[in-house]
Amino acid sequence: MKSDLFTQETLPTRDGSQITFTFYTHASIAVDAGGHRIYFDPVGENIDWATQPKADLVLITHDHYDHLDRNTVKVLNGTGEFVKLKPGEKFNPFEGVEVEAVPAYNITPGHQNFHPKERGDAGYILTFGGSRIYVAGDTEDNEDVLSIRNIDVAFLPVNQPYTMTVDQCARVVEAIRPKVFYPYHFGGTDVKTDIDALVDRVKDITDIRIRPLE
Which one of 136, 172, 180, 205 has the lowest number of neighbouring Cβ atoms within 10 Å? Predict the structure, then answer.
């Protein structure tokens, strides 16, 4: 596949520059910021990654198979190297770009073993052009997530039983109030996410945009 076959969207940042998102599948997205291509959790066996723009940075939220494919990473950057931060860590990979890791974990009884807090899985907040983009990874509506603020664009996972229910996701949106919200990671299980119900819950709070991220 060529890059123009994937849905892309360009948004203005707070300082008037631009940031472009490419939506691949499930939890796999790319961000173009300041001339750099940053991939988040690039996985997808039906995607010819060799035809995609080369990676300047690959960020991995955690090492589950639907978030980390080492062969894909090597195809994208030629080395197989990726960055996986622990919550609380941050760095500046490029001039004008900051990446901060925030906690990602489950709290629902019986679900904590999917993404236990003590394992240190992460979501990421990428700051560019004064705008803050939150890619949550696999998480639920825990207190760390609910305390996040000042988010321009949020990617929040909505699939069961591994991440958030519609109600949990709506609670996060109500708390952090992103300007733009993309549900992602909402397929691949026997329990189908009621996206229409999610839209109805948050449409008056945020600009919710449904893209091919099942």
Answer: 205
pTM as predicted: 0.96
Long-range contacts of 4-11 (CB under 8 A, 24+ apart): 7/211, 7/212, 9/209, 9/211, 11/131, 11/153, 11/180
Q: Are 129 and 35 in contact (CB under 8 A)?
A: no
Q: Are 146 and 107 contacting, i.e. CB atoms less than 8 angstroms apart?
A: no
Per cent of the chain over pLDDT 90 is 93
Query: Is 213:182 a contact under the CB 8 Å cutoff?
Result: yes
Mean pLDDT of the chain: 96
Angle in degrees, CA 154, 159, 160, rounded to 5: 145
With beta carbons less than 8 A apart as the criterion, state whether 36 and 94 touch. Answer: yes
Distance CA 58, CA 74 (A): 10
Q: Are 163 and 141 in contact (CB under 8 A)?
A: no
